């Protein structure tokens, strides 16, 4: 598992690093205001639909069934199953694209009703959305090919293609002078990224002998089973995306820049979420699916406990940093060019709120495969729906009841994620789907100590830098170096209590 996690996590980390580069360029060029908010609404649309129909829902419904068909009936039957799934998916996506492009103004009005009071911003958001939305059609093809690669134990290419979004957007933003404004440059960067990602993943899949072909739509028993599972998983993914739509809706009524502040704080939070959380889910689901198909439930439980232990070990230090040096993080990364200090400070407060839910997000990625690997996509949906209802109630209470503003949106998200974790654990334990073992329990203490050391080291790094300079980037670098060293020392000393494989024995 460690090797596969390093493969997926390494490319995902590289994607997040280039994503930071993209965000730094975006912050400097777009700033924090009406133009930036309009582009983020345009970006939210294809990303949200991608999350609804893409990795989360699609992988949950597809990988377990693809692996099962391949194991029981052979590669040819699995390829035929994949082609039939692809044909249904393309039919749905073409219809969605046509409807969205035709009614984009109404879509934007529903997503960001506060823009109606600013007609120029509304019109800009509509135009940008029409440019960016076709990205969805191209990326869902890449998602299915990535799922097929993962099911075949090939993780690198599937983890690498997301890099191209960051590269394409940085390229178009660097040429912003050739566009009507910088927001148009960013939107065309999204479109270009879809083309590049599609070409890359088709090439990578072809090297492994994997292809997708359009076939005549047929309503067969296996497609009925798949689409039923996909529908349940899609409903769960849609529930999560509803929260993002609620964030956008509420933020559109807040002062200009609130939506942008949320975006950049969430982007920092996405570093561990995207690097480790997604990597754990990507590796764990096919591994558990294979063990369960072989009726080896002990091996499935062992893999899950290792994943949970690694999840806490690698995410808790980020939580500590978010709590101890949030201003240093946001100012050092984004307070440049058109992105002013007040915007960075608001983003820092939201980052603290997001950090509360970070461990819960990673735990969801570890617990949900207990259900998905057994073909059960409905139970995680029920847990998600409960958390969504809690989330929406908390957001309205925090923002309009208590006046927390953008920070209230982030805090509502974090607390609701913990509700989701609690419900999932309760359902899984009642059915005997999870079993906590010594691997996980032994790792809790060292993980907490490593996190505390990271926070203390980061704070010491900032205080040390303050004696020499007021440069925010140098202060951030000092915090990263000392925090990282403190974390490394604790992990090295306590490595035998951690599931690090050969690293623990060396």
How would you describe this protein?
Helix 3 (55-73) runs antiparallel to helix 4 (75-102). The chain has helices at 2-30, 34-53, 55-73, 75-102, 104-111, 119-132, 135-151, 156-160, 163-174, 182-207, 221-251, 258-293, 297-324, 326-334, 341-367, 369-372, 378-401, 406-430, 438-466, 472-493, 502-505. The model is unreliable at 1-9 (pLDDT under 50). By secondary structure, the chain is mostly helical. The protein has one domain. 82% of the residues lie in helices and 0% in strands.
In short:
By secondary structure, the chain is mainly alpha-helical. The chain contains 21 helices and no strands.
Separation of termini? 18 Å
What's the number of helices? 21
Structural class: mainly alpha
Mean pLDDT: 78
| Count of domains | 1
Q: What is the H/E order?
A: HHHHHHHHHHHHHHHHHHHHH
Quaternary state, please?
single chain
- Please tally the β strands and state the result: 0
Write the layout of secondary structure elements.
Elements: H1 2-30, H2 34-53, H3 55-73, H4 75-102, H5 104-111, H6 119-132, H7 135-151, H8 156-160, H9 163-174, H10 182-207, H11 221-251, H12 258-293, H13 297-324, H14 326-334, H15 341-367, H16 369-372, H17 378-401, H18 406-430, H19 438-466, H20 472-493, H21 502-505
Helix pairs in contact: 1-9, 1-12, 2-3, 2-6, 2-7, 2-10, 2-11, 3-4, 3-7, 3-11, 3-12, 4-7, 5-6, 6-10, 7-10, 9-10, 11-17, 12-13, 12-15, 12-18, 13-15, 13-19, 14-15, 14-20, 15-18, 17-18, 19-20
């Amino acid at each position: 598992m460690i090797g596969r996690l390093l493969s997926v996590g390494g490319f995902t980390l590289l994607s997040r690093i280039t994503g930071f580069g993209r965000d730094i360029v975006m912050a400097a060029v777009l700033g924090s205001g009406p133009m930036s908010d309009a582009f983020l609404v345009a970006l939210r649309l294809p990303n949200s639909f991608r999350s609804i129909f893409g990795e989360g829902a699609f992988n949950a419904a597809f990988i377990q069934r693809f692996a099962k068909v391949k194991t029981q009936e052979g590669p040819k039957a699995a390829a035929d199953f994949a082609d039939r799934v692809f044909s249904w998916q393309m039919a749905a996506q073409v219809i969605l694209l046509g409807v969205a492009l035709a009614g984009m103004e109404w879509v934007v009005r529903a997503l960001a009703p506060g823009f109606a009071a600013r007609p120029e911003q509304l019109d800009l958001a509509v135009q940008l959305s029409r440019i960016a939305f076709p990205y969805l059609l191209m990326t869902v093809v890449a998602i299915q090919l990535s799922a097929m690669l993962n099911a075949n134990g090939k993780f690198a290419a599937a983890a690498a293609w997301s890099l191209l979004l960051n590269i394409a957007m940085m390229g178009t933003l660097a040429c912003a002078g050739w566009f009507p404004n910088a927001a148009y440059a960013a939107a065309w960067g999204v479109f270009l990224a879809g083309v590049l990602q599609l070409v890359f993943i088709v090439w990578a899949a072809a090297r492994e002998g994997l292809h997708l072909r359009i076939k005549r739509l047929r309503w067969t028993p296996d497609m009925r089973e798949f689409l039923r599972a996909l529908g349940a998983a899609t409903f769960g993914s849609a529930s999560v995306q509803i929260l993002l739509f609620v964030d956008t809706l509420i933020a559109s009524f807040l002062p200009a820049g609130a939506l942008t502040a949320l975006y950049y704080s969430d982007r920092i939070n996405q570093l561990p979420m995207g690097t480790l959380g997604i990597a754990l889910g990507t590796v764990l689901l096919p591994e558990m699916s294979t063990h369960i198909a072989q009726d080896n439930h002990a091996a499935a439980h062992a893999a899950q406990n290792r994943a949970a232990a690694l999840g806490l070990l690698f995410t808790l230090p980020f939580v500590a940093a978010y709590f101890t040096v949030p201003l240093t993080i946001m100012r050092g990364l984004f307070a440049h060019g058109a992105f002013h200090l007040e915007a960075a400070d608001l983003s820092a407060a939201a980052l603290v709120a997001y950090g509360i839910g970070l461990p819960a997000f990673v735990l969801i990625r570890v617990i949900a495969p207990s259900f998905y690997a057994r073909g059960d996509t409905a139970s995680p949906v029920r847990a998600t729906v409960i958390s969504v209802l809690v989330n929406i109630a908390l957001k309205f209470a925090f923002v309009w009841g208590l006046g927390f503003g953008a920070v209230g949106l982030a805090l509502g998200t974090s607390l609701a994620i913990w509700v989701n974790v609690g419900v999932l654990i309760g359902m899984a334990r009642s059915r005997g789907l999870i079993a906590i073992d010594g691997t996980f329990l032994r790792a809790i203490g060292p993980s907490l100590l490593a996190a505390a050391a990271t926070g203390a080291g980061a704070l010491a790094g900032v205080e040390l830098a303050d004696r020499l300079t007021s440069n925010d980037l140098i202060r951030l670098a000092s915090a990263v170096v000392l925090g990282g060293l403190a974390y490394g020392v604790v992990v090295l000393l306590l490595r035998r209590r951690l599931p690090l494989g050969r690293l623990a024995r060396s």
